[in-house]
Amino acid sequence: MTVLGKFWSKQTIIAAISAATLALSGCAASNALNEEDGAAADSSDTVKVGVLHSLSGTMAISEVSLRDAELMAIEEINEAGGVLGKQIEPIVEDGASDWPTFAEKAKKLLQKDEVAAVFGGWTSASRKAMLPVFEQNNGLLWYPVQYEGMESSPNIFYTGATTNQQIVPSVTWLLENKGKSFFLIGSDYVFPRTANKEIKAQLEAEGGTLVGEEYTPLGHTDYGTLISKIKAEKPEVIYNTLNGDSNVAFFKQLKDAGITADDVTVLSVSIAEEEIRGIGTDILTGHYAAWNYFQTTDTPENEKFVAAYKEAYGDDRVTGDSIEAAYMAVYLWAAAAEKAGSFDVDAVKEAAGGIEFNAPGGKVTIDGDNQHTYKTVRVGEIQADGQFKEVWNSGEPVKPDPYLETYPWAEGLN
Amino acid sequence: MQPILSCRDVRVSFNGFQALQGVNLDVLPQEVRFLIGPNGAGKTTLLDVVCGKTKASDGEVLYRQTENIRKLQEHEIVHLGITRKFQAPSIFANLTVWENLELSLKQKRGLWSVMRAKMTGEDKGKMEAMLLRIGLMEQRHNLAGMLAHGQKQWLEIGMQLMQNPEILLLDEPIAGMSETERHKTGELIHEISETCSVLIVEHDMEFVRNFSKQVTVMHEGKVLCEGTMSEIQQNEQVAEVYLGRRESAC
Amino acid sequence: MDKKKLGYWLFFIALFLGPLYLTEFRLALMGKFLCFAIVALGICLIWGYTGILSLGHGVYFGLGAYCTAMYLKLEAANGQLPDFMEWSGVSALPAFWVPFSNPIFAIGASLLIPALIAAILGFLTFKNRIKGVYFSLISQAVVVVFVTLFVAKQDWTGGTNGLTNFTTFLGFSLASPLVQIALYMMTVIILGASFALAAALTNSRVGRVLSAVRDGENRVRFLGFNPTSYKVFVYSLSAALAGLAGTLFVLQVGLISPAMMGIIPSIEMVLWAAVGGRHSLIGAILGAVIVNSAKSFFSEAYPDIWSIFLGLLFIIVVMFLPNGIVGAFESWNEKREKAKRKGGTADAADSVVS
Amino acid sequence: MAVVITQLFNGISLGSILLLIALGLAITFGLMNVINMAHGEFIMAGAYTTYVVQQAFSHYVPAALFNYYYIVAIPLSFLIGALLGFVLEKTLIRFLYHRPLDSLLATWGVSLILQQVARSIFGAPNVAVTAPAWLDSGLTIAGAVLPYKRLFIIALVTICMVTLYLYLDKTAAGRKMRAVTMNRSMASSLGVSTKKVDATAFAIGSGLAGIAGCALTVLGPIGSTIGTYYIVDAFMIVILGGIGSLIGTVFGALSVGMLGTVAEFWSGASMAKVIVFVAIIAFLQFKPAGLLSARTRSLE
């Protein structure tokens, strides 16, 4: 055997191959991340933005539609001439329903692609994971989903509702129209627990009574026991913050137990048009949901929006609150950039306050103080065709108040 | 002479089946005792009880007349000096012959002691002597799984001997061995008995005849009779249940 | 120094010098993968060497990460109540949080708490001689218990959001690239040290007892060893490694949530060791890096295909590469050497080059 | 009073659902000792089969007959589950009978693939199945409503149990199956084709998962991940009941169902889940062989 042959013993070869694979695999991963780099050369006439949602994993069910709406808005703006004379170039990333991945991809979008803004996220967990990344890199995140409030990052714009634009008015509406005794059910995670804490304070202040509060683990599918608790307490209203699949099991089993919309009013805050289809309209008919937008909302902008969305993605697709919020987020950012005359994050943030936009769900305005938006609140009744019939709205856009500072009863909450 | 191992009315039942129905047996120091009997007589079960693999439902197993080992765990029984060789070779196939012997060294087997253990010259000497004795010196760096069947049996016997046992339990040690290997094994057993007692389960009557002094016959979970091979052969009861049927085979 | 050692040294030096040839972003990824490699080392010890398949290592990883995250959260809160507790309606810091304001306690706990829990679980199950798939399934049940608890006790753990939004570690800003490079290098050093420790263990007499336990636990008893204590030891050690990896993970990634200690991440951890080669420590490290790189690549380029690819990977490794990449390489190498011995030395040099 | 009756009923109902899910595993895992992590995906396949049958009925069958789709869906779900199981056994499992830990990992891979395949075919969102009208509403006893759907599942699982028992005990094929699971080499030397028996047993176990999936559509969501909600529970029930004992599985499922509903009633669903799993783990420490075990030392 030659000296060389001796040197290349089994183990050294393993180690060498290891090192090589290591380098290669690292490159493979980073090449994929770099694939947009080629386009960076002609950055003079385009501006890059990130679109970061879960395209795989459990959350893909909900988030894919948001990506679709954002890409549609980008295309519309580009067709109308772009922003500040530049075409918007979206860079789509997959958060994979995994919170560290959201943070990782956000970092990539900001550091590598140097995007002007990122539209993304759904779960609070993903937003919380991205928040430090945006703050440390001074990026701009547009988060389009209703959430539990108690947050106001200078680097995030919130185009979904905070609690006083969805939960608080809907509780008041229920107290005035449906009954005083409330049973709160929710999935066991952050949004329901925070929302219910606020509802309890509000009930106390506005003369309602709390007869029960229950949480079930995510993915829970047997509601027999919970329903017998509901039966024992005989509430007039069930306020539902269950998430995803649990809604299906809950509503099916509620109906089987002989409880219909005539006996108890169930108001949900996470069931939109898309979810109705997975649960089945027959068991949901007559129950309520509170949102800022329904596919049936009667505005000229919405007519155009729904038609365009179906045109782009198929007749069988439905829109919904978060989809609309994602769509308008792109327009709001574009308007803010136009006003600022620049894509610079600080300039856009500065200019954003007071920006108005006629969204499909009605006029929205960015609140310069907390970076949320003024939105009209709506309560709808689910119809047999899977659409909502609006039964109440707030009449005018409600000022966002993520910390519920203007509500005396909320004082002890934070 | 005081018996080193005494079984007193040992009973074992498996889901209602009485495998041992009150066995009494005494083994003297440095005795070679053969256990014979038809299939299902409870020979292997008795070895299992002595080594702790099977727990007796009743009775006593006394070591040196005083210590009842019936409820001890297997490794605790080994610590007393009772070791067992199984019927199928139970060596560690993915370790080398040398490593198999290393684990068998008489040593403190607690985690902490083993962690600090170092291979001393004395240990090495002992292991090399054993390799010579069992004829596996050349194969010492081979994986034990690669050995021939007979060699595996020898390795396992070697592993038991490394522990300097007081009592050695052997279950059909010559199964699958060639004629010369059998003879060698028989001689080895007698060599061993100079330092310890040996309790052997064996089916091969010729082997028993050639190498036994005391034989115990078991039948249906009980001891039928005891004595030398020639005494046994004259016992009519034995002939009836066992030898009678096997006469032609022997 | 023999060649084997030289090879390993080269490997770890190459990793250590990562900051020289990797961009900041890629370095962060690699740092994360190397944390996973530490977990894979622990899995290799218990599974490859001792034959215990744990489907619950996500819990130990998570516990370690939470311990350190609690310290980071308290440091970020700067003497006040952590933000999530405030909006969960907690008025005072729970007593069990208090000691975690000390970084030494927190990091110590990130090793010891997983080890302790593993020891308790291991002692009970191993003493009762529950093993094989039964142990694996029970370890999965333990995951369910911990994940459900961590999600439900939102006011103590941050619920599904987990703990995030940290600022400093020992006063150094976690956002600073220099700190991240230092953390990366620390990860490489700790990985190297864990590797050395694991290698020393497997080459010692204890290591041979562990292999013997894998091949025949009952036979080990008849050599006078009590397998329970050995299994409990190696299982706890492996849990401590996972906890340590969790600490390094949370420092670099800045986030831990119950989703990362669930059943799916726990099984993926086993896959890392399986792909690299369950009997090989270096294989475990390679497996963790390769699988996760592939995950980054695939989930990026073809998000839908990732889970099919992952599924196929499980099947292929089990059916065709039971000893993983390193095992496949070794058997290829053996064949090659046999052929070489037969074919003489003339073409030996060629085959080395090719 | 009504609450007590309802809760008792809920316990039995939850137990019956768990039993239906675990019954297939009691065969593939309990009798054959194969860890099939894709069992949950066979449940999913049964659920989607029901969905497809319903779609077909609403398109091609007169509306008057729509309510009978469920009668067709049950046997079809069994067949689809059995077919998947048969294919899995022939292509994968049979190579892994002696490597249980490896079969666990490989079938986990299969489960990932099946989930993705289902997403590709049916889309990521849940699909809706309308339960047949004859299962609507329920029986009222002393003020407690016992939904027909839950009663139906109790009946279904009873029928499955009895059929299975008769098959294993009274038919030649079933006796062969038991012979193989008790002593493989002995059965084989007596001329039983173990390969055939293995494949049949695995197919039956998987078919039962298909039925479970069909039954679950009336109570819960139908999506690509439904199998994952049940798989850990199902394995724990089989272990709890005792490997190799069908009756043990029944007791296991019922005690978990009862404990789960009682614990949920007193504390809440999350804590109930924790309590149930801790109780199972603790119980196995005292009785590693489970409630009833067909073998003396089955955990060896």
From TrEMBL, chain A:
PROSITE patterns: PROKAR_LIPOPROTEIN. Coiled coil: none annotated. Keywords: Signal. Residues 1-28 form the signal peptide. PANTHER family: ALIPHATIC AMIDASE EXPRESSION-REGULATING PROTEIN, PTHR47628. This is Urea ABC transporter substrate-binding protein.
Automatic annotation (TrEMBL), chain B:
GO terms for cellular component: plasma membrane. Pfam families: ABC_tran, BCA_ABC_TP_C. Gene3D superfamilies: P-loop containing nucleotide triphosphate hydrolases. Keywords: ATP-binding, Nucleotide-binding, Transport. Residues 5-245 form the ABC transporter domain. InterPro entries: ABC_AA/LPS_Transport, ABC_transporter-like_ATP-bd, ABC_transptr_urea_ATP-bd_UrtD, BCA_ABC_TP_C, P-loop_NTPase. GO terms for molecular function: ATP binding; ATP hydrolysis activity. Coiled coil: none annotated. PANTHER family: CONSERVED COMPONENT OF ABC TRANSPORTER FOR NATURAL AMINO ACIDS-RELATED (PTHR45772), HIGH-AFFINITY BRANCHED-CHAIN AMINO ACID TRANSPORT ATP-BINDING PROTEIN (PTHR45772:SF8). This is Urea ABC transporter ATP-binding protein UrtD. It comes from Domibacillus antri.
UniProtKB/TrEMBL annotation, chain C:
The keyword Cell membrane applies. Pfam families: BPD_transp_2. Its main location: membrane. It comes from the Bacteria. This is Urea ABC transporter permease subunit UrtC. GO terms for molecular function: branched-chain amino acid transmembrane transporter activity. CDD domains: TM_PBP1_LivM_like.
TrEMBL record, chain D:
NCBIfam families: urea_trans_UrtB. It is found in: Cell membrane. Belongs to the binding-protein-dependent transport system permease family. LivHM subfamily. It is a multi-pass membrane protein. It comes from the Bacteria. PANTHER family: ABC TRANSPORTER PERMEASE PROTEIN, BRANCHED-CHAIN AMINO ACID TRANSPORT SYSTEM PERMEASE PROTEIN LIVH. One of its GO terms (biological process) is amino acid transport. Its main location: membrane. InterPro entries: ABC_transp_permease, ABC_UrtB_bac, BCAA_transport_permease. This is Urea ABC transporter permease subunit UrtB. Keywords: Amino-acid transport, Cell membrane, Membrane, Transmembrane, Transmembrane helix, Transport. Signal peptide: none annotated. GO terms for cellular component: plasma membrane. It comes from Domibacillus antri. It holds the Pfam family BPD_transp_2. GO terms for molecular function: transmembrane transporter activity. The chain crosses the membrane at residues 12-35, 68-88, 151-168, 199-222, 234-259, 265-286.
